[in-house]
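Annex B. Sample input.
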Amino acid sequence: MADPAPAAIITGASSGIGAAVALALAARGVDVVVNYVQSAHGAEAVAAACRERGVRAITARGDVARDADCRALAVAAGEAFGRIDYLVNNAGVSKFVPHAQLDGLDAVDFERIFAVNVTGAFQMIRAALPALRASGRGAVVNVASVAGTCGVGSSVAYAASKAALINLTLTLGRALAPEVRVNAVAPGFVDTPWHVARMGPERYEKAKAVVGEGTPLRSVTQAADVAEPIAWLLERATQVTGETLQIDAGLHLRVGQFA
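Annex B, continued. Sample output.
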């Protein structure tokens, strides 16, 4: 009798990096839960594309800042697939404010950004942990950012939240071993609708040109470029935990000129 297919939850998976991760895992025979908050249509399109790759895929609405929603996501995965092997904490929010403009952020901004980017990841791991432990190959990847390693990015609050997520990766990589591995990726500028929606088309194209010309690899990272290493960390990197992999075309090597 063949082993059952592994199953994964990907938060914030209706577009961008999360969608690319869902498709990359589906191509490897992994059943997926496509989580979303607002775009039910986008999530279903991703799930349908996963099904075309021969796996089972469901959509599940939930705001990871709400612990009840995180627990419901874990229950939905268990009911649909009978297991959770992989968790990708990709859901994230930000506010675009220059770092020197301190009055552009208030406590509410910090609370919401940390609630999704940090607390949400913790709550999802906690909710999925019994199933991850039972899996025998449980693995988590947190989607952080070069902002968290270099102190740049859309805002001070966003950079601080991603630094906290990297620290959470270290802490839980230690605490959950040996049953569950916990790693992170730190993308740089990624060509996704998330950036376009928040920066506006004109500003986005200018930023994209600067990054493409200024990174050591002279390229702009695509969502699929991030998804492939995430899949590797989940499936193949059996001796790796507590690590953060920067995926940014070398942007962090020249971060000063983009700060």
